[in-house]
Amino acid sequence: MRYPIGSKAELQAPPGNFRVTGVDVSQRADNFVVGDFATLEEAKEAANQRAQVGSPVYIYDDKGELVERYGSWH
Predict the structure, then answer these.
(1) For 3-45, how does the pLDDT look when each residue is reduced to its tens digit (9 = 90+)?
(2) Predicted pLDDT at 1
């Protein structure tokens, strides 16, 4: 499984939140932030809506740890 390349600060959500970030493979694997969410359920909904083949989306917690992945690299 491949992960986005980014600093912990880029992937880490604010305290008590979850950060949804993705990778646009068609654009040289550029990272983008979907947003920060107060609940895991909100983060999962946003991730599920944005994820697709060639654009994987990841949810990170406020410690910068991966919680879940949606979509695929190819």
Answers:
(1) 666 777 788 999 999 999 988 777 666 778 899 999 999 999 9
(2) 46
* Cβ 12 vs Cβ 60: under 8 Å: yes
Query: Which strands, in side-by-side order, build the sheet including 66-70?
Result: 30-37, 18-24, 57-60, 66-70
Ordered by start, the domain boundaries in the chain are: 8-70
The C-alpha atoms of residue 65 and residue 55 are separated, in whole angstroms, by: 20
- Phi/psi for 61 (5° steps) reads -95, -175
| Amino acid code (one letter) for 17 | N
Closest to 33 measured CA to CA, from 17, 47, 44: 47
pTM comes to 0.85
